[in-house]
Amino acid sequence: MSFEVVYTSVRRGLRTGAKGFCTVAATEGIPRALHEKLESLSGYRHSEAAAGGAPPVNHSHLIVRVQRKIYHVVSRIADAGIDCSGRTNKIAHHLALTSSETAQYPHGPVSLFTDDGFWCESWDDDPEELPPRNLPSGHASTSTDFDTWESVFGDAGWAGMLGEAAVNGMKPVSIIVPHTDSTIDLLNEALQLVPPELRWKLCFSTYFSRLAPGTQCHWRFVLDGTGEARRLRARSLGALVDPIGSAGELSDSNPFVQAARECQPELVHSSATSESRRAPPAAESTGGRHSRRRRRRPVEARPRPVTAANPFDYNEEDFVDEERNNASADSSSGRRGARSQNRRTGLWLVLGLFGAVIAVLVFFAVQKLS
Q1: Mean pLDDT by 10-residue block, N- to C-terminus, for the chain (370 residues)?
Q2: Which Pfam families does UniProt cross-reference here (predicted)?
Q3: Rg (CA), the chain
Q4: Which of 41, 67, 296, 307 registers the highest number of CB atoms within 10 A of its CB?
């Protein structure tokens, strides 16, 4: 089941006593942990770099783990003018989908943003609980060209860097853009180079400012003139696409670069799919002879931590096993602590009784002498 949260600054929020920046609308029955997680993803930076133009809108897709479930969070976060106290305001509309629900959108999360009537851009009503409603209609882009990349970066081939990084291990790429008016178009065009079965594994942000705890962001569009853009130019930990000086040159032999330049993204889909499905190499043959030596029992693999770089690499069973192991460890630790506490309590009782006996004997001895 999907859940929604709308977060902005108001005089009275949905929760009793809430005001200022808080939730004004949420789906009935939303789990509390998920509700709090979506609120924490509502950050927005009012950038001076956008002065004179339209305030940036952050369209994002993140994968989060809440308790035993994995959610795909598709969000629209934007400037909302001035609030009732005279401060700058923002509005965040989050939609959390389960993995089964994402199957309704084979073209990926970016297709959900085509339904403008679904996303909340302002809030002037009273707080309310939202009944479960129909999901947004997702329409695929019919364009197969890379004109936006050609216009912004002078070479459509730069889109190939994003496609190649996504297919080859979901490596992070930062893209510095001169303005945010075209980021959704840049994103939509670059996604054409990613096979459809990988698009829901790709996390992105069209107005990236910081990485939220417990999340990963593979494609980070950064507005030029911001502190984040300056830090990237000083030291980028991953690939960087910069309109005023991208490091290195594009290789003409790179199939992703050629696919973008020739506007034929389908050329890399088959090769990317076969590469991702390639079976691991078989074990070395022993020449038909079987060793009689008793093999060691394989060590059971421990669950991988949930703070991994790519949260979608793990299925929900891994998370369940991890929580069970943690619960078992906590229970064992609690039992050991209880036993230790019981021993200390018993020792003090024995010492107390012994002291009382001595006091009684001393009392009678004094009475007898007197």
Answers
A1: 94 91 95 96 85 86 94 96 90 96 91 92 91 82 82 92 94 92 92 93 94 93 92 86 72 91 87 50 38 44 43 42 52 62 80 87 80
A2: GAP1-M (PF20014), GAP1-N2 (PF20013)
A3: 29
A4: 41
> Is the same domain home to 124 and 109?
yes
Supply the pLDDT for residue 291. 36
- Number of helical (H) and strand (E) elements in the chain, helices listed first: 9, 10
Q: Cα–chain-centroid distance for residue 147?
A: 30
Query: Which one of 111, 137, 163 terminates a domain?
Result: 137
Residue 246 inside a domain? The answer is yes
Specify if 210 maps to a domain.
yes
Q: Judging by DSSP bridges, how do beta strands 20-27 and 3-10 pair with one another?
A: antiparallel
For residue 322 the two structure tokens come to 């991890």
Domain of 234, in residue numbers:
141-274
Element (H, E) at 59: strand 57-66
Euclidean distance between CA atoms 304 and 324, whole angstroms: 13
Look at residues 137, 167, 193 and tell me which one is the last residue of a structural domain. 137
